[in-house]
Amino acid sequence: MAMIGVYVTVPIACFRKGLAREYLETEPIPPPSTCYGFLLALVGETDRRRHCGVRLTPVLLGKPHKSVVLRTVWRVKSRPLGSAQNTRPDYQQILTGVELVIWMDSADENNPPPHLEARVASSLDPNQRGRLKRFGGLSLGESTHLVDQVRLFPGDPNRNGSVFLLQSNGPLTLPVWVDHVGSSGTRFVTGELVEKPLLPPPFDRLPRIEQDPS
């Protein structure tokens, strides 16, 4: 199946920087690993290794408004886990009015079909939605940052967006795989945001979702 795009809007989101601690900064776009998790949730896939090998990248449309909120965050310092000693107030950057296109292509995926883009297309087909089995709210980033719109996107040569593309000396370093137990298994790629028409980007510059370093 050829590369496909998915249009997504999120009223409120935070794509937290991995090393942010006291002040919870946000990346300007969701990392590839975050986009991958969102797509797995969309199709109801619970095995996050199921579509390793897929290439995908986000494109930011417009410029979301950035602001700062004071919120309660959890930091596990003592037992029991629900202890009040594990909560503290921290400042967090949030983005409002996030509008994205996520492009994906499974040409590199080694797992047998159906590949991720075929499952996404099926899940967004009005005639197939009754067969979709998934659970929970659909969010991008934190579980409370619920998605407003999601639909297939055919491309638009008359509109531009900022697409994340691989670049060895690029200014952005984003995860393509997150190790949720510690951090030694987290994998990163380096890239840049490039202003381009909303058409499928070059396949070889799309980040690849993988556990092992490339």
Could you walk me through the main structural features you see in this protein, from its secondary elements to its overall organization?
This protein is mainly beta and 214 residues long. The protein has one domain (4-65, 93-205): Alpha-Beta Plaits. The protein has helices at residues 32-43, 116-123; strands at 4-13, 23-24, 55-60, 65-74, 87-105, 149-153, 156-166, 172-177, 187-198. Strands 1, 2, 3, 4, 5, 6, 7, 8 and 9 form a 9-stranded mixed beta sheet that branches. The mean pLDDT is 89.
Biggest β-sheet description: 9 strands, mixed
Structural class by SSE content: mainly beta
CATH topology heading? Alpha-Beta Plaits
Q: At CATH's second level, what is the architecture?
A: 2-Layer Sandwich
Oligomer class: single chain
Contiguous helical run count: 2
Strands, total number: 9
Distance between the termini: 24 Å
3D shape: globular
Average pLDDT value? 89
What is the H/E order? EEHEEEHEEEE
Helix content: under 10%
* Percent in strands: 35-45%
Residue windows where pLDDT falls under 50 for at least 5 positions: none
Tally of domains: 1
CA radius of gyration: 17 Å
**Briefly, what CATH class?**
Alpha Beta
